[in-house]
């Protein structure tokens, strides 16, 4: 039974504009925040999920910039703990969370088959790939890169949790 959800941030909680996909910190931060938005429906979903599950956020990037995005998008209240990976990969953070939960109690939601999906699969954690941004066209080359589930947006996560349109059963509390 899933008790906790682990989210990636960029291209998972919101879709990055294409011009920001490979930029660590944009030259014009105000333009970034005018261009990149989190839908109100996705904020509402995070609030619903927080009432049912423990939520974690693991994001990769320059710490100060990731912190600024978390604060500007008002994401902090939804998550029990936020981890910012500055280069060692997400797997060590998944391992930290595994000290608190069994692998069967966790699910990872992310867009990147090379990091979130692969790392979580290697640890036996349920994986949910969201098809957003430039990584949405990536094709898994190994079984470790293949997600347990694929969704198009966070609404798809709600459907998955509610048992709609899924290909493999998942126990959600």
Characterise this structure.
The protein is globular. Strand 2, helix 3 and strand 3 form a beta-alpha-beta unit. With 173 residues, the chain is of the alpha/beta class. Strands 3-2-1-4-5-6 form a 6-stranded parallel sheet, sandwiched between helices. It has a single domain, classed as Rossmann fold (3-Layer(aba) Sandwich).
Let me know the largest β-sheet. 6 strands, parallel
Q: Tell me the Rg in angstroms.
A: 15 Å
- CATH homologous superfamily (4th level) name: HAD superfamily/HAD-like
Strand segment count: 6
Total tally of structural domains: 1
Cα distance spanning the termini: 6 Å
Mean pLDDT: 87
What is the string of helix and strand elements? EHHEHEHEHEEH
Quick take:
The chain has 173 residues and is α/β, with parallel strands linked by helices. Helix content is 32%, strand content 17%. Residues 164-173 have low confidence and may be disordered.
Structural key phrases:
disordered C terminus; 32% helix; Rossmann fold; 173 residues; globular; alpha/beta
Indicate the topology.
Layout: E1 4-7, H1 29-35, H2 40-52, E2 54-60, H3 63-72, E3 81-85, H4 91-98, E4 106-110, H5 113-122, E5 126-130, E6 149-151, H6 154-161
Parallel strand pairs: 1-2, 1-4, 2-3, 4-5, 5-6
